[in-house]
Specification:
By secondary structure, this protein is an alpha/beta fold. It has eleven helices and 14 strands. The N and C termini lie far apart (46 Å). Bound molecules: uridine-5'-diphosphate-glucose and 3-phosphoglyceric acid. GO terms for molecular function: glycosyltransferase activity.
Length: 331
């Protein structure tokens, strides 16, 4: 039976002390945040990787620019990294107020690879803020509070180097809408693997979520996996660089995005498996047997842990009672 009491103590302590909430603008003291930004002499870059996102990137960029560039000056640089789009992503994003940089034009001597992680790596290279906020370009609805929400831990606690967003994820597939249940690769691949191999990270509610922020000083010290393995790669590698207490998460409320096909999610899961197994092999890790999952109770995420370690029986041909019996039967 699930039992939150059985969550690994270090993961549980991290979850309790390093999870904060910023589910809407009403919950955020933006003036205090701006003051902290000015006092600390910080510069904030927002990086949005985008591949063929003409349908969504315009509204997102306009919301962010209106609120945090032209309104309250929390963001100094709003950059869309055009990841080899074949649609009007670049024009739409530029018209909405972003600086648009083609991934292929950044560090050209290093070539141009495919994938989201490549766009993020180029995004860090192309910007200059000491604090970098990442957001996907296919987000739906007004999510402009994500930016200050992700910045709070970085602007208010010098021990925090990296902040992951977490959220409830509705799922709409084939016209059927469910208020939660999104993040299928997260639940079926990333979470079980991360729990097995890096149990101290079990408190992360959304290890794959595309909204997170970090100090450049940390981000420039870790590799960026070029494809969809980038989020789990960053989590594991930043754990090594910053330690568990250098990581934090913030509940941003709800996240809706465009869903990919099952076949595409299978390929994404494959990249995540490959990213994590490569790191586990390098570190010689043995899998553990506890899985922590989360449910939102209306106020907060509630963890519940289950033993998933497997037991097994030997081949029957090695069981004397069986071989004696089956010899008798055959004979
Ligand atoms: O080659 C690519 C592929 C994607 N993207 C952009 O990356 C973002 C996320 O990509 P998407 O294909 O929408 O991923 P999801 O299906 O939403 O996958 C989830 O899981 C992924 C794996 O961890 C994360 O990278 C995502 O942020 C997270 O939302 C979007 O803005 C894309 O336009 C690129 O820039 N280049
Ligand atoms: O984060 C994930 O697991 C993938 O983006 C899939 O999300 P979805 O199930 O909401 O499409």
């Amino acid at each position: 039976m699930p039992d939150s009491g059985r969550m690994r103590p270090d993961a549980r302590a991290w979850f309790e002390h390093r999870t904060t909430s910023a589910t809407s603008l009403a919950e955020i003291d933006v003036d205090a945040l701006l003051l902290a930004k000015r006092r600390g002499g910080h510069r904030v870059s927002v990086v949005l990787p985008a591949r063929d996102e003409e349908a969504t990137v315009g509204t997102l960029v306009r919301d962010l620019a209106d609120r945090w560039v032209h309104g309250i000056p929390l963001v100094d640089e709003l950059v869309v990294i055009d990841s080899d789009s074949t649609d009007a992503t670049a024009d739409v994003a530029r018209a909405a107020g972003a600086d648009v940089v083609a991934a292929a034009d950044v560090l050209p001597a290093h070539g141009n690879r495919r994938g989201k992680g490549e766009a993020l790596w180029k995004g860090v290279a192309a910007t200059s803020g000491d604090l970098v906020v990442f957001m996907d370009s296919d987000l739906l609805g007004d999510v402009s509070h994500y930016v200050p929400g992700l910045l709070i831990p970085l602007l208010t606690d010098p021990r925090v180097d990296y902040v992951k967003g977490c959220y409830t994820r509705p799922l709409t597939v084939d016209g059927e809408h469910r208020p939660a249940g999104g993040g299928r690769v997260t639940e079926l691949t990333a979470r079980p693997l991360l729990n097995a191999l890096w149990p101290e990270l079990a408190g992360f509610v959304q290890p794959l979520g595309g909204e997170y922020a970090g100090r450049r000083s940390a981000l420039e010290r870790v590799p960026f996996v070029s494809g969809y393995g980038v989020e789990v790669g960053l989590l594991v590698d930043l754990l090594g660089v910053c330690g568990l207490n250098g990581l934090a998460q913030v509940d941003l409320g709800t996240r809706q995005h465009s869903h990919q096909t099952d076949a595409a999610l299978g390929r994404m899961a494959g990249q995540i498996v490959s990213t994590l197994l490569a790191r586990a092999e390098r570190s010689g890790l043995e899998p553990g047997g506890l899985l922590t999952q989360f449910q939102h109770d209306g106020e907060r995420f509630v963890p519940s842990s289950t033993t998933v370690a497997t037991d097994e029986r030997p081949p029957l041909c090695a069981v004397p009672e069986y071989t004696a019996h089956s010899a008798g039967v055959v004979g």
